[in-house]
Amino acid sequence: MNATSRKGANFVGIFTRSSGAFLTVFLCTGTVGADVIKQSSSGLCHPPFSPWYERTQSYTGFDSLDACLASDGRLPKGIASEPTATSSNDYERSKFGHGWADLDSDGQGSRAEALITLSTIPVTFAGVAEQRVVRGRWVSPFTGKAVFDAGDLDADHVVPLKYA
Question: What is the largest CA-CA distance in the chain?
């Protein structure tokens, strides 16, 4: 399989608690989708955490590191089969702030921005400050069901914070 990862935007998935509906919104630049393992013509397998990953332009793509290694590939010197930058013992939620980022400084966090963007009708806010979305209409692309209460929607991280 020859493939390249798609560049574009990271996304936050928003799930409904009651119906299991899922909404997706693109928020910021980055890489979307599963990265391929790149095997160069010299037989080196470059996982996404390899310092040479972005520079490897001519390659055979693999779905997993094991598949690349099984095809007579090998890892570059100094690269382990798994990234070791953060162990699960190093994770501290407090390192990531206390709430949703307000990147455009308009008083609305990224959750509110995502809900506003995805609502098919104008949203209703709690209070006059227009910081917390309480009502709108969101349609699940998987079930087709509409959700009207923002409190029924949960946001999920594409990359768990402990790996960020």
Answer: 63
- Three-state DSSP at 3 gives coil
- pTM for this structure? 0.44
Q: Which two tokens stand for residue 8?
A: 């574009």
Report pLDDT digits (tens) over 53-108: 888 888 999 988 889 999 999 988 877 766 555 455 666 777 777 778 888 888 88
DSSP state of 88: G
Token pair, residue 17, equals: 């608690």
- Torsional class of 78: left (φ above 0), alpha (ψ -120 to 50), beta (otherwise): left
Domain residue ranges of the chain, discontinuous segments joined by +: 6-163
List the Cα angle 9/150/116 in 5-degree steps. 45
Closest CA to 38 of 93, 1, 10: 1
| Dist. CA 140–CA 130, nearest whole Å | 24
d(Cα 36, Cα 7) in Å, to the nearest integer?
13
72: left (phi over 0), alpha (psi -120 to 50) or beta: left
